[in-house]
Amino acid sequence: MKSSPNLFVSPGNLLARHFVKSSWPQDGCNQSAEFQPNGQAPISSTDKQVTPQVSHDGQVLEFAPPRRLKTEEIPNIVDDFRIAARNAIEAGFDGVEIHGANGYLIDQFMKDSVNDRTDAYGGGIENRCRFAAEVITAVAGEIGAHRLGVRLSPFADYMDCHDSDPEALALRVIGLMNNLGVLYCHMIEPRMCVGAGEHGSKPVIAHGRLLPFRKAFRGTFMVNGGYDRDEGDKAVADGYADLVAYGRLFLANPDLPERFRRKAGLNKYDRSTFYTSDPVVGYTDYPFLDDQNSELATR
Ligand SMILES: Cc1cc2nc3c(=O)[nH]c(=O)nc-3n(C[C@H](O)[C@H](O)[C@H](O)COP(=O)(O)O)c2cc1C
């Protein structure tokens, strides 16, 4: 791993595998507490249960009721993030990305649809951002802010996690990141939001909604969500972002940068294999360009 430049890992995700992700899962695999240590309830800012959700194949997913963290337990959780970051650096990664997005634990503390606490970690925006602030500060102190990125999704509503004032929320976290000199901010576009708008329709999302955050953040700004090659190039050329992260296109195209460079065709992703537990199918079995003899997969 040492030889790979710019290899980042998310301690939020590492933690998530064990307990964060399981608390408000988004992949449909962890909806029960069976993956928790000793089958314990997943931890959260709240004890409210996630609303049952319908998966792409029509299955209704019910989620284990979470356990609200006691105030005095929180410093240990913050410390777990610090240790995970240290371990990642010692394992040879160049940096870590704290996952403060998409309904994971930090998001559960930040957003007022979920956080119903009455202690110093609930209530006003400052209190709801306290957990994020403590985690970011601890990790930056451990490995250096120059090795740290933070992923945020102020407009997302995964796992019932949404906020009544997403702009103020994100700007507050960005202010903290600026003060610490965090290397990059990775923000998810509102168009990835899954919720219905008025009258049950998809909300109409104005393009450029992340611009205030891009302007406010002093480090490198990375956007994600629904980008293709041309749109990504445009976002960078327009100064809307410094970097573009690709999810589904990268999953289906292991050599995506090379395909972009050659303006080659892309494998189509297969949605039915998203979020499945098979380690290969839909994850590592998409063909490389050179393996295809110019004949593109048509899955
Ligand atoms: C199979 C799959 C698994 C994903 N897993 C996660 C995850 O664990 N955590 C997360 O925050 N986002 C996850 N995402 C969302 C991606 O990180 C990304 O935000 C999303 O796909 C939008 O980017 P795109 O339009 O480039 O695909 C996942 C997406 C896919 C397709």
From TrEMBL:
PANTHER family noted in UniProt: 12-OXOPHYTODIENOATE REDUCTASE 10-RELATED, NADH OXIDOREDUCTASE-RELATED
Highest taxon listed in the record's lineage: Eukaryota
Gene Ontology biological-process annotations: fatty acid biosynthetic process; oxylipin biosynthetic process
Cofactors that this protein relies on: FMN
A GO MF label: FMN binding
Family matches, as Gene3D superfamilies: Aldolase class I
Family: Belongs to the NADH:flavin oxidoreductase/NADH oxidase family.
Coiled coil in keyword set: no
UniProt-recorded name of the protein: NADH:flavin oxidoreductase/NADH oxidase N-terminal domain-containing protein
Keywords noted in UniProt: Fatty acid biosynthesis, Fatty acid metabolism, Flavoprotein, FMN, Lipid biosynthesis, Lipid metabolism, NADP, Oxidoreductase, Oxylipin biosynthesis
Domain NADH:flavin oxidoreductase/NADH oxidase N-terminal, residue spans: 59-262
Endoplasmic reticulum recorded as keyword: no
Taxonomic placement: Eukaryota, Viridiplantae, Streptophyta, Embryophyta, Tracheophyta
InterPro entries cross-referenced by the UniProt entry: Aldolase_TIM (IPR013785), OxRdtase_FMN_N (IPR001155), Oye-like (IPR045247)
Leader peptide range in chain numbering: none
Pfam families: Oxidored_FMN
